[in-house]
Amino acid sequence: MASSSKPKRIYHVFLSFRGTDVRNNFLDHLYRALDLKGIYTYVDSEELKKGDQIASALMKAIEESHIAVIIFSEDYASSTWCLEEAVKIMECKEERDLKVFPVFYKVEPREVRTPREKYKEAMDKHESKFGENSEKMKRWKKALLDAGNLSGWLVKEGDDSEHIQGIVKEIATHLGREPLHVAKHLVGIDSRVLKLKSMLNLESNDCVLMVGLWGQGGIGKTTLAKAIYNDIFTQFEGSSFLANVRETSKGCKDLVTLQEKLLNEILLRSQRLVVSSVDVGTNLIRERLFCKKVLLVLDDVDDLRQLSALAGEGKWFGNGSRIIFTTRDEHLLTAHKIDQDHVYEVKALDNSEAHELLTKHAFSTHQKLKIRANLVDGVLNYTKGLPLALEVLGSFLCGRREHEWKSTLKKLSKIPNKSINDVLKISYDGLEENEKEIFLHVACFFKGQEIGYIKKVLGSCDLEIAIGLKILIERSLISIKSGTLQMHDLIQLMGMDIVQQDCRDDPMRRSRLWLYDDVLDVLSYDMGDCAVKAIVLEPHELKEISINPDAFTKMRRLKLLILRNVYNSFQGPVCLPHWLRWFEWPGAPCFPEFSSGPKRLVGLCMSKSSITIVAKQYKDLQQLKYVNLSDCKSLEIPELPPSFSYLYAEGCKSLKNNGDLTSLHHFVRRGLSMADAYSSGQVDNRCLTISKLFYLEESC
Questions:
Q1: Which residue in the list 85, 111, 265, 330 is annotated as catalytic?
Q2: Rounded to whole angstroms, how far apart are CA atoms 700 and 698?
Q3: Distance between CA atoms of 99 and 86, rounded to whole angstroms?
Q4: Where are the beta strands (DSSP E) in 291-420?
Q5: Residues 231-243: pLDDT tens digits?
Q6: Distance between CA atoms of residues 598 and 579, nearest Å
Q7: Is 231 strand, coil or helix?
Q8: 668 phi and psi, to 5 degrees?
Q9: Which of 290, 164, 177 is nearest to 230 (CA)?
Q10: Please, what sign has the CA dihedral across residues 423, 425, 430, 431?
Q11: Can 435 be counted among the known catalytic residues?
């Protein structure tokens, strides 16, 4: 899909002139000066101005130019070709945003506008031939009038060199405000630009509007920002696109560089402004731009310091100005007082858009190779609509055969693509330790799980879960949908890769384990210094695992242990480290024991177990809060610690209590009312003192 309907530009400058007047002096010098600056200039030959085919080529060249320079010399108006060029140039000025510079070479501007002297003589001759009131004469006169009223250069005898330097400098400056390169292939951009333009409310000049583009890395924020910039920058008195602000502004001096760039791009000064400090730059921006309607884009901001130095408040700029920020951090926009109505969340491409973008990058128009649809679908499933990933992988796979596609997908399932991963990892690197720990837990273990459950588990592991989850949402690393925690597959793979990079060859040196073979390896070691903080093992089918009684007590950092769909071939209870915070093992053969020391267990899940009595030692678990003993058919509960709050006991057909449960806040006994349970003798009468009774479907 095309990004815009704007005309294709080939030439930097189109020169319109009367050859007999200027070709061997002023024109040649101007052309050479432009060429030395790398400015691609269209200059026709007098001999080419013959025939309709050549006329069409000249008109097309005007349409395909960024800037037109009309050199009004004494004999310019005597040429009907020159007059037709002037008409076309002025039409393109109105219809195609062509920038027009007149040069009055040894003539006064009023001679061109009125016309007078040589111009009047030339126009009188044309009138005698075509008629005073002919449409042709009206068009020519209007073109001369409009062009003669434009600001330009008056070149008199003997000062060509000085003026040529000024003309070239002005043209070079204006070319600096030309459209930005957006991307090789653009898909789905037009609809997003339209929606963003609506949010920008460009018809209103009553105030300054700040808008934020927010989304995860690689989602297309910069691409959208460039596309909207190209679409609207000509509507402003000045514009500036500051790319990669995060990278550029790592030091105070680099913020000064950005302030200088902003000021010089918007003001288009012939003499460059120099900023000595951030404070001076802030004042200069406020003083020089407060009455100027500007378009400013700050791309990839990640620190309030950047916003304060470059666009601290709307009143720094003139009415009608639009300031656009792109960021991965939604809270940064909130802190800068940008309301939610002016935050545009950039989302992944839908399936058809993703397929189109992948096709553009992976298949050339002349390619004869046929790739099976399931391999293309494999790439689409891996990238999940992330434009960066589609571009990187599509380009990598272009021209490759089927077996190479298969091999690439197999490799990606183990190790993420570095180019993609490096971009995504920027968001992780900007987190503080609490948020990094939560992110890695979610990436390795908890994607797609119920948010209440995750809060209980991670909250028990000494993590500040409420603010941590909020920050991860603001940084576009996670989202919550229908009560479950979601994460883009590539972000999840990035998190897993961070853990595996701790030591790819030795799982004992990694902080988290989730693969069956890795857990087996670690349990078989005679452990020395073990870095494992968490183990969550959940194979797709029931697996045997041999756990020596003291295997976990050697893991001095272990806080989280979840074993599902596994059974222990080693007979007898396992011994858990006293510093463990959360333990789950549905179907465990028996209750575990604990190493000596203060017990820190907060959560315990042993549903579907054949146990009949909770061991007496559980009164020593002073921090125990959540217990899931559902589907333990016959169960006797001893006295529990004061911290105990949640007991989930669905499916416990015979439940006896030998202790005081008055401190229990939530007793979940699914399938029986308390009255029925009491009358049937399945619940001890002391359970009637429970403060609250809930019939809930939840787990620890």
A1: 85
A2: 7
A3: 13
A4: 294-298, 322-327, 343-345
A5: 888 788 889 999 9
A6: 8
A7: helix
A8: -105, 110
A9: 177
A10: positive
A11: no
